[in-house]
Amino acid sequence: MIPLLLYVAVSSEMDSLQANVGQCDRRAVNPAFMGEAGRRSRFLLDAYRDQETIVAERLVLADRRRAQREGVAVSVDEDRKLKLQEAALDDRQKALNDRRMLEGYRENTMDSLRQFYLINCPVGEDKKK
Q: How far apart are the first and last CA of the chain?
């Protein structure tokens, strides 16, 4: 799980990038834009792995619930344990969905900043000197 402080750091990095884009500071913005494709790929791969794990664990729980419905006796403790595992998976899924949502906003922001930069900052011209 990604700590809230990391999201605050990303937010402040975006503020800094926005200021640098506004100043057409090529030396400051180029590294951020150049590393974007790799960052997006890493995020997608991590999200895929997390989702794959959640799905596999949901399938195991679904099999156990199916067995329970088909007449396999389950103790109260076992039922409570299944409910806790299901709740934990739901929490992990919600956290992953939130990370995806924030990443989508971050990507849209990066794309908008890049577009603004390309339109407003001619090549060879650096307002910050």
A: 41
